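Supplementary Methods. Inverse-folding protocol.

Structures were first reduced to a C-alpha cell string of length 181. This string, shown here, constituted the complete conditioning input.
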C-alpha cells in the first residue's frame, strides 16, 4: 500500500481519520496513492453496516447495493490488472454469460466478510501485477478495442472507476443510515 501523508492533509469527517495521497509525490506514487485512497474510501463507505444493510438496494428502482459495488470493483481490479495488464486468462468472479452483471447481483447469502476478502485479494494481486510494469509499458492483453493499454492509462482509468462508484456509494450509504462524508 502506498504511504499516505502526514496529518496536515487529514480532513475532518464523521468516522476514522483519513488521509489524501502526498501532495509532492512522483507520478507513480501519486497514481498509486490516489487509487489506494479511493479503494479505502469504498471500504469506509461499507464500514459499520450489517450484511443486510450492505445488501440493501436503497435507491429503488435500481438494484444497486454497496455489496454489489464491492463485488463489481473486485471484478474490475481482476480484469484490468490481471487479464488486460498481464494477459492472464481468468474466469470472472461473479459475472456469467447468462448474467453479465452478476457482480452487482447479491443474494441473502453474500456477506461483507466473504466479499471483502475477495476484493482485498484482487487489490493485492493488482498491486503485485502492476509492480512488474513501468508506467509506459503496454499491457500484454488487449482491451475490447483490440489495442494494448499503458499501465499509466490503467491507473488513471481505475481512479476514475473508483471515483464514479464512490459517488454511488455516498448516496447508497446516506440512504441506508444517513451517514455522509
Amino acid at each position: 500500500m502506498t504511504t499516505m501523508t502526514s496529518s496536515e492533509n487529514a480532513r475532518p469527517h464523521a468516522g476514522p481519520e483519513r488521509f489524501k495521497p502526498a501532495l509532492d509525490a512522483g507520478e507513480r506514487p501519486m497514481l498509486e496513492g490516489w487509487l489506494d485512497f479511493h479503494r479505502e474510501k469504498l471500504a469506509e463507505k461499507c464500514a459499520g453496516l450489517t450484511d443486510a444493510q450492505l445488501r440493501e438496494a436503497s435507491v429503488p428502482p435500481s438494484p444497486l447495493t454497496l455489496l454489489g459495488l464491492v463485488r463489481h470493483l473486485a471484478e474490475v481490479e481482476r480484469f484490468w490488472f490481471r487479464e488486460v495488464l498481464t494477459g492472464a486468462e481468468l474466469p470472472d468472479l461473479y459475472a456469467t454469460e447468462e448474467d453479465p452483471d452478476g457482480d452487482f447481483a447479491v443474494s441473502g447469502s453474500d456477506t461483507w466478510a466473504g466479499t471483502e476478502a475477495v476484493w482485498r485479494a484482487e487489490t493485492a494481486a493488482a498491486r503485485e501485477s502492476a509492480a512488474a510494469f513501468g508506467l509506459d509499458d503496454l499491457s500484454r492483453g488487449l482491451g475490447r478495442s483490440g489495442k494494448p493499454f499503458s499501465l499509466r492509462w490503467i491507473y488513471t482509468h481505475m481512479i476514475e472507476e473508483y471515483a464514479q462508484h464512490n459517488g454511488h456509494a455516498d448516496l447508497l450509504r446516506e440512504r441506508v443510515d444517513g451517514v455522509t462524508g
